[in-house]
Design brief:
It contains one helix and eight strands. It is an alpha/beta fold. Strand 4 and strand 5 form a beta hairpin. The structure holds copper (II) ion.
Amino acid sequence: MKTRLTTLAAVAALGLAALALAACGGSDDDSSTTAAETSSAETSTSAGGGETVTFEADPGGQLAYVETDVSAKAGNDTIEFDNPSSTGHDVVIEDESGGEVAKTDVITDSTTTATADLQPGTYTFYCSVPGHREAGMEGTLTVK
Ligand SMILES: [Cu+2]
């Protein structure tokens, strides 16, 4: 009689241990999945951080950019500005509150770069050479 009770107790204890192991294994799976998702998200964010965003002025010297609707990934991006014309232009990027986040040199017939730490949102870019923005040298930069 006493032996049988001991056996039952042992079986019960084993059962509890199995449950505890199962619960433990389950939570390990959850946390490892979360960790994998987190690290892949971080990887893609930092990969996007190295993106180069290209702006180009009208090759014929018009006061215009080739693209006025530009998109970029959020991160610490390189702003590349290509001005193949002999008319001086630059690219200035402003956030929604009018704060300047990037500005290239004024160049002619060459390419220049600047860097910008871009957060998701909508920005305005324009040429700061007097009269050019007024003539239509501006556009929208959408950062995602
Ligand atoms: Cu210009």
